Amino acid sequence: MNEICEKFKITHRNSTPYRPQMNGYHTTIRTSTGATPYFLVYGIEAVLLAEVEIPSLRIIQEAQLSEAKWNRMAKAFNRKVKPRTFKPGQLVLKRIFPHQNEAKGKFAPNWQGPYMVHRVLTGGALILAEMDGEVWPKAINADAVKRYYI
């Protein structure tokens, strides 16, 4: 053992029995909890020096779980989201944003209008017009408007 340590320039240290710091206790998954003690205390997994250069099986599995989680979330989001399509001439209500002068607190209305869609631009932007025909100079995103039904 001493020859191997000298050949690879390893400093061999003996430790007392049941010494968690020397035995990797904090980075071993416990069967009772299904997690490492380090994760239970700090909320993240410990990064070992050996894992910096070469990813371990645990790191690879964690990356796969993270990717699967994102795919599942994207699938659930895409299932509920429907694209909003507007046509010129449709009536819409425009959201009142908190930074606008019309925002006056909790009991104020959240929508103003109705407005008419004057032109539909690419990327989901709309040019709105007042009901009297006055066209707004700035475009507004389709996320900030909703259909107005009479």
From TrEMBL:
UniProt xrefs under InterPro entries: RNaseH-like_sf
Name of the protein this chain belongs to: Uncharacterized protein
